[in-house]
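Let us practice reading a record.
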Amino acid sequence: MQHVVSQPPPPFKSHSGALEVHQIPAWQDNLIWLIAYGNKQAAVVDGPEADAVLAYCEAHDLTLTTILNTHTHSDHVGINRALAERGLLDGVQVIGPARAAGDVPGLTRGVDDGDSVTLGDVTG
């Protein structure tokens, strides 16, 4: 089946211009948010699978360095599982909810309310 988003909008920059946000269609009705920063580095927010992200990174000369998991539903940590199955999760920083650490594959840093995360020169 065709994805419900036939043409995602073009990437947009953060207010400071230090981050560029991309939308990658996945499955039939899901979007994976990719944040490009620094020297061609990329962070992915959630994601049901890895294929679309890996293809997008290759097409745009980006290196996946970070996964930000907001929670543990399969459409949010599926990318972690898929990358782990391929041996590609090693070396990727995985940031997710500390309270559900056991449910976030590859978690390297648990965060809680009020914690900050840094991507390149941007901390938020």
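A brief commentary: The helical segments are 51-59, 74-85.
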